[in-house]
DNA sequence: ACAAAAGTGTTGATCGTACACCCATGA
DNA sequence: TCATGGGTGTACGATCAACACTTTTGT
C-alpha cells in the first residue's frame, strides 16, 4: 500500500484517449485518426497519446486536442474525464493504462492531420465502428455519458458556439438523443432554469434563411439543471 | 500516438485507491488505514495499492477490498470507478497515477488491519479529514458521486444487506443526503419503480424493537430510476 | 400571398407533497 | 394503553405534454 520499494510495482505506460464529439449537419460526429504503425496500422482510432513526465492526464488531453484539431485556443472547451481502461490485453504489445476523455466542440474546424497521425477526419458517429484497440467501446461510453449528462446538466451549450439560438440548442438535444422535442415546451424549460442561458440584448439571427429571426443567447453560469430535462420515449424523427 | 518506441513514454506507477463507504449507526463511515511508512507515516489514508502485472484496475480494487475488509466474498459488492488522479505532484516521491473507486458495503465487519497497513478502522465521514496524499479530495468526490447516483439509480440497495425493509432503504437516502424524507411518499416512489425492489413473500422483521413488523424486500433487477428520486431542499434532521 | 421558423397561450392529465389516519407490536 | 414504527388514503398545488395560435421574415 503505497510502499516505495522501486521494484514492488510494475511500470505501465499511461496514455490519454479522446472521444472528440461535435455536431455537423445535424449529426453527431467523432474525430478519428488513421493509424500509421502496427498494431492496427491503417485502422481508425481515437486521437490520444502518452502522458509527458510533468503533466496531468487533463493537461495531456488538452494538449492532444489542440494538436489534433489545430485549434489555437482550446481553453474554453469542455473536457470531461470518462473513465480509465486498464484491462491487461487491451494493447497487444505492452501494458497500457489509458485515461479516456470526452471533448465537446462547437462548429468544428477541418482537422489538419498533424502530429503522428497519418490522417485525421470527422466521421459520423454511426459509421465510426471497427476502431483500433477498445476504442469502439470508449466512443460508445462517451456518447452514453454525454447523452445522460444532457438531462441534468447544462452541457448542451458546449456543443454550441459562443452565441446561439434556442433552436440550435434544441437541435443539440434532438441530435444526441435521436428524439424530437416540442419546441414551445423546450423553450420554457430552458428559460425557466436560472443561469442556463442568458439573452444577448438586441441580437437576432436568421437561421434557416426564412422565418422570424431568433433571439440570441449565451451560455449562463449554471452547470446543473433543476429540474432535469428528461428524455421521453416520444418517438420522432431525429431532427 | 500509440507509437511503440520503448523510450517514447515515461514509466508511471499505477495504483488504485478505494473509498469504502458504509452506514453504521445512522452515519456514513469510510474505511481508513494508518500509514506505516513515509511519506505521511502515521497519517490516515484510503486503502489502496499497486496494480499487479496481470490485473485490471477493477480486479486490483476488488483484491484490495477483500484484503482490507477481510470479507470472504466481495463478488457481489458494488464497486464503481470514480475517476483517475494524475497530477504530477500528488505523491512526493514519484509519479503515481491512481484510479479511484468507490465501494459500497452493507453492515460492515470489523476490518482486520491486514496487508501492509498498520491499522484499519471505520471512521465517520465527518471526522475523516487530513488524510494523506489527495485522499481528502477523493473521499469527497466519492461522497458526491454516491449522493448524486442515489437520485437516478438503484444504488441505495448496495448499502443494504440482501434482505431489507423500506425503512432501512429510506435511512440510506436520509443518511447520505442529510435530509429527511416523507415515509409514505418514499414508499410509493420506490414501489412504483419496476424492478427497484422485490418483496420477499411471507417475511417480516421488527426493526426498532417496537412497532409493526416491516415487510422485507430484496434488490430488484433494475439499475436506473425513472423517474428519478430528487433531493428536495426540505430541511430536516439527518436521521 | 405563402412558407418557414420563432415565439405565446391554454388546457387537461399527471405527478408530487403534505398531512391525516389506521395497523401491529413490545413494554 | 401507550409509544413506536409500518402502511394506506387523499386533496391541493405544481408541473408537463400537447396543440392551437400569433409574429416576423424571405420568396
From TrEMBL, chains A, B:
* Keywords of the record: Hydrolase
Q: Hydrolase as a keyword?
A: yes
Which species is listed as the source? Streptomyces violaceolatus
Entry-linked PANTHER family: ADP-RIBOSE PYROPHOSPHATASE, SLR1690 PROTEIN
Belongs to which family?
Answer: Belongs to the Nudix hydrolase family.
List the PROSITE patterns. NUDIX, NUDIX_BOX
Q: Could you identify this protein by its name?
A: NUDIX domain-containing protein
Where is coiled-coil annotated? Answer: none
Ranges for domain Nudix hydrolase come to: 11-145
**Which superkingdom does the taxonomy of this entry point to?**
Bacteria
Q: Name one Pfam family in it.
A: NUDIX
CDD domains found in the cross-reference section: NUDIX_NadM_like
InterPro entries linked to this entry: Nudix_hydrolase, NUDIX_hydrolase-like_dom_sf, NUDIX_hydrolase_CS, NUDIX_hydrolase_dom, WH-like_DNA-bd_sf, WH_DNA-bd_sf, WHD_NrtR
The upper taxonomy is:
Bacteria, Bacillati, Actinomycetota, Actinomycetes, Kitasatosporales
Amino acid at each position: 500500500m503505497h510502499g516505495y520499494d522501486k521494484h514492488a510495482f510494475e511500470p505501465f505506460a499511461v496514455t490519454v484517449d479522446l472521444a472528440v464529439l461535435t455536431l455537423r449537419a445535424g449529426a453527431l460526429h467523432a474525430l478519428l485518426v488513421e493509424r500509421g504503425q502496427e498494431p492496427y496500422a491503417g485502422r481508425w482510432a481515437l486521437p490520444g497519446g502518452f502522458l509527458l513526465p510533468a503533466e496531468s492526464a487533463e493537461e495531456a488531453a488538452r494538449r492532444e486536442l489542440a494538436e489534433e484539431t489545430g485549434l489555437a485556443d482550446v481553453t474554453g472547451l469542455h473536457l470531461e474525464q470518462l473513465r480509465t481502461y486498464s484491462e491487461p490485453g487491451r494493447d497487444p504489445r505492452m501494458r497500457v493504462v489509458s485515461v479516456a476523455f470526452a471533448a465537446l466542440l462547437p462548429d468544428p474546424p477541418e482537422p489538419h492531420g498533424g502530429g503522428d497521425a497519418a490522417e485525421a477526419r470527422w466521421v459520423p458517429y454511426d459509421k465510426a465502428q471497427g476502431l483500433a484497440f477498445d476504442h469502439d467501446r470508449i466512443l460508445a461510453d462517451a456518447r452514453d455519458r454525454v447523452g445522460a449528462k444532457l438531462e441534468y446538466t447544462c452541457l448542451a451549450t458546449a456543443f454550441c458556439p459562443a452565441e446561439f439560438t434556442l433552436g440550435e440548442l434544441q437541435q443539440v438535444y434532438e441530435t444526441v438523443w435521436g428524439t424530437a422535442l416540442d419546441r414551445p415546451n423546450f423553450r420554457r424549460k430552458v428559460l425557466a432554469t436560472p443561469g442556463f442561458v442568458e439573452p444577448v440584448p438586441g441580437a437576432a439571427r436568421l437561421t434557416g434563411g426564412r422565418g422570424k429571426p431568433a433571439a440570441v443567447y449565451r451560455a449562463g453560469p449554471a452547470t446543473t439543471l433543476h429540474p432535469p430535462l428528461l428524455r421521453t420515449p416520444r418517438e420522432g424523427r431525429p431532427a
